[in-house]
Specification:
With 78 residues, the protein is mainly beta. The protein contains no helices and six strands.
């Protein structure tokens, strides 16, 4: 994760975050014994909990002392 935050003046805040892809690779060996026929062996492979590269960004402006306007966005590399 990489993040940056800048505040060019006190009332304006700008930030961005980049998150690398995350994944959980799994491999499950399995064996099925078919009585009288034989044994079937195989391996199940896959990926779980995948999230792509993500870039999140946002900005906030204090319009008044008690009023802030914010804009956020996110890009994902699916």
């Amino acid at each position: 994760v990489f993040s940056a935050h800048v505040s060019p003046i006190k009332r304006i805040r700008i930030g961005a975050t980049f998150r690398w892809e995350m994944r959980l690779n799994y491999q499950i060996p399995a064996k099925v014994d078919l009585e009288g026929i034989g044994t079937l062996g195989f391996v199940i492979n896959g990926v779980a909990h995948y999230t792509p590269h993500t870039l999140a960004f946002g900005a906030a402006v204090d319009v008044l002392e008690n009023l802030t306007i914010a804009l956020d966005g996110e890009w994902q590399n699916w």
